[in-house]
Amino acid sequence: MTVLEVLQATTAYFKKHNIESPRLNAEHLLAHLLRRKRIELYLEFERQLTETELAPLRDLVKRRSEGEPLQHLLGTVEFCGLTFLCDERAMVPRPETEQLVEFLKSEIRNPKSEIVDVGTGSGVIALSLAAKFPEARIVAVDVSDEALSLARENVERLMLGDRVQFLKGHLLENVEEKFDLVVANLPYISAQQRSTLSREVLHDPEIALFAGSRGDELVRKLIDQAPSRLRPGGLLALEIGLDQDQAILSALAEKNYRDICSKNDYNGVIRFLFARYG
Ligand SMILES: C[S@@+](CC[C@H](N)C(=O)[O-])C[C@H]1O[C@@H](n2cnc3c(N)ncnc32)[C@H](O)[C@@H]1O
Predict the structure, then answer these.
(1) What does the alpha-carbon distance between residue 195 and residue 188 come to, in Å, rounded to a whole number?
(2) Most exposed: 34, 77, 219, 268, by fewest CB within 10 Å?
(3) Which residue's C-alpha comes closest to atom 11 of ligand 1?
(4) CA–CA separation, 73 vs 103, rounded Å?
């Protein structure tokens, strides 16, 4: 089969198995196996593929059609222009979170800011900010040893090791210093929402997804803890779940945060909350 024929057959197979963006998935997997950029496949459409080239593709296509995330099969994910290792140890980073990081990049005025990323997962928020602000000092916290091991591999790979400190802990409990920015994309899915999640999402670690019967429990605890860890006027930046904005905005007001505001994600959903303290 030629490159084009393989792409067409794989796309049709993915469509049959209800994979979103079937052609894009097919192109990513074939490019990965042939060690090409996706765009380079277009220059090789007529090339015949050998059996040695095709054999490993069959396994990946089967796993993808069964709902294994594309990023796990590729082993990497692009986030804010950087390439991160990605596997089952931590949540697959989402495009919404890139938006949060982009907001923060324009919000951070002091290049020497001290920042803590709570629930760092694969480290995408902490490391993207470390790459953008070379003089910032960043602490990355997670309760999961597995997530921390992946984040540590990412920091080595991106050569940012000297500026990011990793800590195991529940929210800010093991953090002693004060910060200019506390940022968190914590688990925010309620137990009842489990049945609505896609096969791909269910490959994320449970501890990265679920946060109690309401879904906003961890975010609320962080809102309680953060004032004692923020410098005067410091910023709390949160990614939240669908329809959680009103309750969390009230919690911020009750705790005397100021300059409270929300921002929508690309889908028009209120996804990010920002507030200053002191
Ligand atoms: C939704 S994932 C986000 C990961 C990463 N920040 C991102 O945006 O891709 C939430 C992360 O919070 C961590 N986590 C869950 N409970 C926690 C807790 N009580 N304290 C600290 N981290 C926690 C999970 O292990 C997971 O890595």
Answers:
(1) 15
(2) 268
(3) 119
(4) 30
Question: Phi/psi of residue 3, each to 5°?
Answer: -55, -45
DSSP designation for 202: G
Model confidence over 20-58: pLDDT tens digits? 999 999 999 999 999 999 999 999 999 999 999 999 999
Pair 211, 218: CB distance under 8 Å: yes
Q: Which one of 172, 204, 207 would you pick to mutate in the ligand 1 pocket, going by the greatest count of ligand atoms within 8 A of its CB?
A: 207
C-alpha distance from residue 121 to each of 36, 179, 181 (Å): 28, 20, 18
Expressed in angstroms, the distance from the first to the final Cα of the chain is 65
Rounded distance from Cα 96 to ligand 1 centre (Å) = 15
**Closest ligand 1 atom, CA of 218?**
19
Asked if pLDDT for residue 162 goes beyond 90, the answer is no
Token pair for residue 105?
A: 């990049």
Please give the distance of CA 278 from its chain centroid, rounded to a whole number. Answer: 29
The pLDDT confidence band at residue 88, using thresholds 50, 70 and 90, is very high
